[in-house]
Amino acid sequence: MAQQPPAAARPAETPATIDVAGQCVLYVGGRQALVPHIRSAVERRQGRLLHHDGGLEQAPRILENLVTQADMVFCPLDCVSHAACLRVKRLCQRLDKPFLLLRSSGASSLVRALRSDAHP
Q1: Using alpha carbons only, what angle is made at residue 92 by residues 22 and 58, rounded to the nearest 5 degrees?
Q2: For residue range 24-73, what is the model confidence (pLDDT) as tens digits?
Q3: Cβ atoms of residues 112 and 100 within 8 Å
Q4: Which of 104, 66, 71 is CA-nearest to residue 87?
Q5: How far is Cα 119 from Cα 19, in angstroms, rounded to an integer?
Q6: CA–CA dist 69, 33 (Å, integer)
């Protein structure tokens, strides 16, 4: 029987209740054109968004500083380098930060993960 990865390392499959009010959210990877939509989704829930493109144009070495600032980290599986995703995952484990994989880089994937009864 295959062992399931820990919940924090599995793709978000069902709407989770994640309260980002007053929190700093780091989004690593994704499509640059969607960052304003992602920022809006986080800010509507009174959170603050940090974004790193996963190493396309931004240096991977700044990831540690961003993870240190973040309260939680999201990483879409379909639009990020494997190296960046692994680096962020290890940093989150070392710094004891929540790390959530998203099925896709679409803004709706993050919105589903952020969905909360308290913040429609």
Answers
A1: 85
A2: 999 999 889 999 999 999 999 999 999 998 877 777 789 999 999 999 99
A3: no
A4: 66
A5: 8
A6: 24
Which two structure tokens, joined as six digits, stand for 7?
Answer: 């919940």
CB-based contacts of 56, cutoff 8 Å, min separation 6: 81
Listed in sequence order, the residues at least 6 apart from 88 whose beta carbon sits closer than 8 Å to its beta carbon are: 26, 28, 63, 67, 73, 75, 99
Report whether 16 contacts 66 (CB < 8 A). no
Is 12-114 CATH 2.60.40.10? no
Does the pTM surpass 0.85? The reply is: no
pLDDT reading at 4 higher than 50: no
Contact 54, 81 (CB under 8 A): yes
Question: Would the CA dihedral through 49, 106, 114, 85 be positive or negative?
Answer: negative
